[in-house]
Input
Amino acid sequence: MEDARHVLMAGAIRSHFQLSAEDKALDGISTDAAVRSFVDDASCVSLVARYNQLEADQGVTFSNELQVASTVSQQNSLVMFKIKPEVVSTESFKTNVLTSTMMASPVNSLYHAVKNMYAPLLLSNDKWSGTFHPQLQELLTELEAGLGKALRQQRGGSAGGEDSLESIITPTDEFQYW
Output
């Protein structure tokens, strides 16, 4: 009998990597040591799934350690992590396991998550902005600006040139650029 937790995880992974149900890339999910550790060991709080499309015959690879991808083809990862350190059950999978993607670099992924999701929710949303401490609002704004600056520098933005202009999307981006 299949472990329902593995079925839930496989569904999320299939969806993220756009794998069909017939695709054999997840055949080893129920026997993978990293997956088993994540679901059965309360102290194991993260699982990283990577799918190398250039080497599809290797399937999805799993790890319990967050690491920067070593090759371009591994840069797209799905990260699952637990809010509370506990054994994963089918019920707690939906309430205790968060998923996030990591594409290109951790700085890139964090910047876009802050800029496009967390900052608008916490700074502009009436429900949250009124209760979110002003100092935390300022720190979140600074974090977004600092991450944007780091991305521009990674792309060669500190030296100027056309490539660095790609990252200017908002007036704040332009202000940070100059």
